[in-house]
């Protein structure tokens, strides 16, 4: 278990800052997700922490030890790569204990640790296979096992689930989170998938254009997005943004799909036309378009929606559920909602 | 009825398969297999003369060959030539590939420079090296004289001539093999190196445990080619030494050429050819049996 502190980290690639003055800290045993669209600098930040890139400026401290300029192998970290980075000519067992062998761990201990970890990730029957003979999910487990077996206090994960199909991804989300908590690892997990961030993280760091957009618990990000970008990026479907209505043209109002209701049409200009219906089983996402502007508004309706495409309806919501942002800066104006539960489990 | 169909279907597909293979079979048979068989048969017959047609002599040609000291000289020279040039060319090729695979300025220029000897005809290469080796005003001697050394007749001395032609072969071949190594190196995903670095592997450990095993298919391919070339390439020997001095650079194929086309001794030449073929076949087989099992193909 280790506390990770990242201070004013900068990485320039040929004059363009991929990571621009990023600072955050991760508590011992916590799972921190670096979230953002591609090119936001999240992977570069992870690679800087791993020592695979040299920072232009800034400091990285793990457990009070400045590791900014240490080689990767001395940072006491493990890493899972997006491509898994398995050695294709080595068996599963050889892949898992590669690091232990290189570090000169005695054979008896190596075997013991291998047995334990293989059982933990469910690979015991595949130890003599080569990566080419495994399914994507099994390869992912090998990569995971290789990271776990090193027993390093910090584990870095670079989009580990992005090559898996949806069902497997959901299983692995739960499994990785359970393993992380059981083994007490401090984990930094990079993803562009906000569902992974919401479901797994103790702490989410949302990045955009090389800088931190918002850092906080998943609940914080969902209930009190700090910017328009955060509001749109976190949550599916993204938050509806409603153009300034009436007295405050400088304000953008955001309302989540589940906080909106469909009401009988009023006959005035505020009515919208139903343009799409997406039935999800437990609920339905109804898409509407207002006549006065082009933005689609999505409303989450429980169960099956009675609305039909082409019908007109009015949109209603409780003003308490409004998120208000400054149009020019995109920053949040209203205070945080009072009901936010910010203590992670 | 159905029984008849079952019997008919495989036969029809077999015929079609053979028809599709026919063009290549015809070409291979005409220019490779039939000549080999004809050579084998000829090697049991005497050399036809104007007034004495070829007649069956059994193993006489082979007996004469074994009794000929020049054959043994050529064979031993050829083995030294192979044992010297193959490891050197492969090692230099790998070293050059590793070097130009790394990030360094002007590496495409360097890659081209390394590859240049490959595109030159062997005749031209031999001429270039003839100039290097020329006693007195050749490049090597000019350098030697500059540093107060004396002139050396590299190609004229029995002690240095074989080594001198071997250097030319290595110089010519290393660049060619480098291309294969370079292509294979670029196939190795960079994150393997990163993963190994995080696990604590040094550059050397990574090379020994990951890069080298992953290059094994290329190494096998390069070795097979190098072995064949070591017994096949004699152009530079024609140009530079003519097999001399006193057979110091005489190798099997050169010997075959001299016996066959200078002395017109068909019987002896065919017997020698069969020995060379058998030698090459055995070497290739040994390589595949020995190395093939250890090679990881992706």
From TrEMBL, chain A:
Keywords: ATP-binding, Cell membrane, Membrane, Nucleotide-binding, Translocase, Transport
Positions of the ABC transporter domain: 4-234
Family annotation (SUPFAM superfamilies): MOP-like (SSF50331), P-loop containing nucleoside triphosphate hydrolases (SSF52540)
Localization in the cell: Cell inner membrane
Alphabetical list of InterPro entries matching this protein: AAA+_ATPase, ABC_transporter-like_ATP-bd, ABC_transporter-like_CS, ABC_transpr_MalK/UgpC-like, Mo/tungstate-bd_C_term_dom, NA-bd_OB-fold, P-loop_NTPase, Transp-assoc_OB_typ2
GO molecular function: ABC-type transporter activity; ATP binding; ATP hydrolysis activity
Database matches in Pfam families: ABC_tran, TOBE_2
Topology class, membrane: Peripheral membrane protein
Gene Ontology cellular-component terms listed: ATP-binding cassette (ABC) transporter complex, substrate-binding subunit-containing
Membership in a protein family: Belongs to the ABC transporter superfamily.
PANTHER family, per database record: MALTODEXTRIN IMPORT ATP-BINDING PROTEIN MSMX, TREHALOSE IMPORT ATP-BINDING PROTEIN SUGC
Identification of the protein by name: sn-glycerol 3-phosphate transport system ATP-binding protein
From TrEMBL, chain B:
PROSITE patterns noted in UniProt: ABC_TM1 (PS50928)
Compartmental location: Cell membrane
Topological category with respect to the lipid bilayer: Multi-pass membrane protein
Pfam families in UniProt: BPD_transp_1
Family annotation (Gene3D superfamilies): MetI-like (1.10.3720.10)
Residue ranges constituting the ABC transmembrane type-1 domain according to the UniProt record: 75-285
Record flagged with keyword Transport: yes
Name of the protein described by the UniProt record: sn-glycerol 3-phosphate transport system permease protein
Keyword Membrane among record annotations: yes
UniProt record similarity statement: Belongs to the binding-protein-dependent transport system permease family.
GO process terms (BP): transmembrane transport
Gene Ontology CC entries for this record: plasma membrane
Transmembrane feature ranges: 79-100, 112-132, 161-183, 212-231, 268-290
CDD domains attached to this UniProt entry: TM_PBP2
Main location: membrane
Keywords: Cell membrane, Membrane, Transmembrane, Transmembrane helix, Transport
